[in-house]
Amino acid sequence: MKKLLFLLFISCPCFAAEPSPERQTELRNLLKNDCGACHGLLLQGGLGSPLQPQDLTQKSDEFLIDTIASGRKNTAMPPWKPFMTQAEITWLVNLLRNPN
Ligand code: HEC
Domain of 47: which CATH number? Predict the structure, then answer.
């Protein structure tokens, strides 16, 4: 019973501070395939700006989250809000800062 409650707790999105492990895998793939298409496979930059940790030190979480959520007008950067939640975008920004 305790185990069941625990499973409910970790799988319910309403409690989740971060995406489920499955969703984390999806987001990592998306980062590599979709974001990587413009930002470079290693996020070293391409059509889009480089997104490696050292490139982001001067930029606030808020600024980065907003760029990913809404895209950037008059540039190729599309809005990702239709495809991921704010919490997922926040998790992605943290991943960009602390890749592993
Ligand atoms: C179709 C190409 C394209 C795709 C796909 C794309 N981006 Fe971008 N992105 C850009 C461009 C171009 C810019 C630079 C916009 C500018 O000139 O200000 C940018 C800017 C950004 C910035 C701001 C960087 C900075 O230093 O200000 C972030 C963060 C970012 N993208 C994250 C992402 C993430 C995360 C994804 C995938 C979910 C993604 N992008 C997918 C083209 C793309």
Answer: 1.10.760.10
